[in-house]
Every structure is written in structure tokens, then in C-alpha cells.
Amino acid sequence: MSFQAYLDAIKSKTGKTPEELKEAATTANVYGPTMKAAEMVAWLKQEYGLGHGHSMAVWAVWKDKGWVQAPKAKK
């Protein structure tokens, strides 16, 4: 499955793009720039029934746009 196919499936299932899901997360008071991927995955599963793979595709978009940060590597 291509990355675009993941995004298309997310839009089909939720009716929202990753950008619109950020707006929804902000409104629900679950979004923050320091949030962890697991927090977002749990919220997307609860609110929209998305699985881990689709949720991580949303995370990838958010990370690419600079809305969330990748974890720092441990030394």
C-alpha cells in the first residue's frame, strides 16, 4: 500500500485529512507540539477507529509539517 493510499483510506474512513485531524485534535484538547505518537494513535483509535498503521501515517504528515517532533535519540 502506498503512502497516498494510506492517506486516501484515512480520508475515506474519517472524512478528514491529516490537517483536519490536527484541527479536531486541537479542538478536543489532545494536540500539543510535544505530544507523543502513542497519544495520537490512542486518540485516533478511540475517536475514529483508525488502526496503528493509518494513525502513524497521520503522525508522519504532522511530523513532516513540523507540528510534532520525532523523539530524541538516546545517547
Q: What coarse outline follows from CA principal-axis ratios?
A: globular
Number of helices: 4
Helix-residue proportion: 55-70%
Unreliable segments (pLDDT under 50, ≥5 consecutive)?
none
Termini separation: 34 Å
- Reading the helices and strands in chain order gives HHHH
E-strand count: 0
Give the helix/strand class: mainly alpha
Mean of pLDDT: 93
Q: Sketch the major β-sheet.
A: none
Describe the overall structure:
There is one protein chain. This protein is mainly α. Helices cover 63% and strands 0% of the residues. It contains 4 helices and no strands.
Summarize the structure.
By secondary structure, the protein is mainly α. The chain has helices at residues 3-14, 18-27, 37-48, 52-64.
Keywords:
4 helices, mainly alpha, about 0% strand, about 80 residues, single chain, globular
Per-chain topology:
Blueprint: H1 3-14, H2 18-27, H3 37-48, H4 52-64
Helix pairs in contact: 1-4, 2-4, 3-4
